[in-house]
Structures are given as structure tokens and as C-alpha cells.
Write a structure and sequence with these properties.
The chain is α+β, with helices and mostly antiparallel strands.
Length: 220
């Protein structure tokens, strides 16, 4: 398409180009078919822009429950029948606390002895290793007697059970409580004979066999 008149200036050239562009646009619109609903595709956001994904990233991760157990005396439950349990604090020095935080504590050979006046209890023969980064002068004795923090009534009751009933008091477990303090679970126990141990072994094996059968049982 050409213009009917010659334009002497630049304004004439711009008007001519605009008219040509308008005419070309009209031709293209006439040739192309009108869009239908089948050709219209919905907008899909990329995967990394998903709102649920963004919320999952922004939220805090759930922390696994922390196990505060330091050590467990497994031989006590095998060799003794637990009659009663009691939670008690323990008096420690700095190097002992550092070693306990590293897991260097053993309750296997430990036992508890109440005082003769029934006012306090002491923990004997519990092994706490020396702290490796402390000098020998400042370190502790590994198997020294350690005072348990119990009430006078509890200490008096433990003394009566050991003297009259012939019970034995052994440490069962050491752990950190919610205030991050070391606690010892002690148990009033009665010794088992060979027959009792055999009965416990039979009951344990029967329980395991029942659990195994329930696990493998299927309804056809």
C-alpha cells in the first residue's frame, strides 16, 4: 500500500507507516480464527511455587524426643525382683559432672546403704571415669562414696526395709531430668534364686513367641 500524496517532512512518513501497520493488523485478525475454550489452557504455577511447599519450608522442623538416659543397670532386673522404686538426687563434683555428660558412668556393681541413724543414704561402688581434660590434682576418685539427696522419712523407711525385711537397695538407672539435673532411680529389691530366674526366662520366651505369631499371622 502506498500513500496518495508525497509528504515532504518526517511527519508524513510516520503517518504512512502507522497506517500500514494498522492495515496489517486488521488483515491478521481477519485471517486468524477466534480462540475457543478448548485452546485456552489454565495457568499452572511451577512446582517450587506451591503454597503448601512454601508453608512447609517456612515452618519449624519437629525435633526428635531427646533421650536423657545416662546408663541403665540391666543386671539388677535380672538378678533381683524389684519391689519398690524411688527417685533420688546425687551429690557430685565438677569433674564427675563433665564425665557423666560424656556417658562415662557405670551402675553395674553399685549399691545403696542407709546410715545407722536413718537420716541419709550413700551410693557405693558406682564407677565414674576421670575427666580426660582435667589435671590429676583436680580429678575425683572413680569409686568414691556419693551422698544421695533423699528426705529423712525416705531414708528411715529404706533403713527399716533393709534391716527388718532383708531387702537390698541397688541403683537401676541414671538420667537427666527436665531441669537438666542428674537423678538416680534406686530400687528396693529381693534376690532371685535359680528357679525364679528360669521362670522369668520361660515367661520372656513365651511373650516373644506370642508377639512373633501375632506378627506373622494373616487372615486369608
Amino acid at each position: 500500500m502506498m500513500c496518495g500524496k508525497k509528504s515532504g517532512g518526517s511527519s508524513g512518513v510516520c503517518v504512512c507507516a502507522a497506517s500500514m501497520l494498522r492495515a496489517a493488523t486488521l488483515v491478521l485478525l481477519a485471517l486468524c480464527p477466534a480462540p475457543t475454550e478448548s485452546f485456552i489452557t489454565p495457568f499452572r504455577a511451577p512446582h517450587h511455587y506451591s503454597p503448601t511447599r512454601l508453608l512447609a519450608k517456612s515452618g519449624k522442623k519437629k525435633k526428635k524426643p531427646k533421650d536423657n538416659t545416662i546408663c541403665v543397670n540391666r543386671q539388677a532386673r535380672r538378678n533381683y525382683e524389684i519391689i519398690d522404686t524411688l527417685e533420688a538426687g546425687i551429690s557430685l563434683v565438677g569433674t564427675e559432672m563433665k564425665s557423666i555428660r560424656q556417658g562415662k558412668m557405670n551402675l553395674v556393681d553399685g549399691y545403696v546403704r542407709p546410715s545407722k541413724n536413718g537420716r541419709e543414704c550413700e551410693l557405693f561402688n558406682v564407677h565414674i571415669s576421670k575427666h580426660s581434660q582435667s589435671a590429676e590434682y583436680f580429678n575425683h576418685e572413680e569409686r568414691r562414696p556419693r551422698k544421695l539427696l533423699v528426705h529423712k522419712e525416705e531414708a528411715r523407711r529404706l533403713l527399716q526395709q533393709t534391716e527388718r525385711a532383708g531387702m537390698t537397695i541397688v541403683p537401676l538407672k541414671a538420667y537427666f531430668n527436665e531441669q537438666n539435673k542428674v537423678k538416680v532411680q534406686i530400687g528396693v529389691c529381693r534376690g532371685k534364686n535359680v528357679r525364679d530366674k528360669r521362670q522369668d526366662i520361660k515367661a520372656r520366651e513365651a511373650k516373644r513367641e506370642g508377639q512373633r505369631m501375632m506378627k506373622t499371622f494373616r487372615i486369608s
